[in-house]
Amino acid sequence: MKIRSYLPADLETLKSITVEAFQGVSIDEGIEREYGLVNGHDWKWRKGGHVEADARREPEGIFIAEVDGKIAGYISTWHDPEAGIGYIPNMAVASEYRGQGMGRKLLEHALQHFRNLNLTLAKIETLEQNEVGNHLYNSLGFREIVKQVHFVAPLTETPDNT
């Protein structure tokens, strides 16, 4: 396995890997279960859009894991130099490469990238049901700071406050 920089030609593969990897651990998937399609788009379309947004925001902060010339996973990062914080919005590993330490190597690479930028903290978020992610992040020194609850309200109805 090697880790290389992102190329625009990688985007569709990253979106595909992301959708497959986030099945069952996506906020957007939970929204779809509750409300159905939103504006005619499913959660997979929205999750793919998050990867596109990462590529627009800081493409030099996306790192690709390759095995025999094939994209096996990736991690996206961006940073706020004034705040001293590096952010990891997305990371995904293709199913056939999971359990081989690739996620750990990608995270270690991202953390070193942040150190090279002289940042102070790295931040990553996951859902409670993402057992693999929760274990991995703790093993790399991340600490749970706070739990967050996501609320969604339909805008086509008036709330019943009686």
TrEMBL record:
Domain N-acetyltransferase as annotated: residue spans: 1-162
Keywords: Acyltransferase, Transferase
CDD domains, sorted: NAT_SF
Gene Ontology MF terms in the entry: acyltransferase activity, transferring groups other than amino-acyl groups
Family annotation (InterPro entries): Acyl_CoA_acyltransferase, Bact_Acetyltransf, GNAT_dom
Signal peptide: none
One Pfam family from the record: Acetyltransf_1
Protein name: Putative acetyltransferase
Organism: Gimesia algae
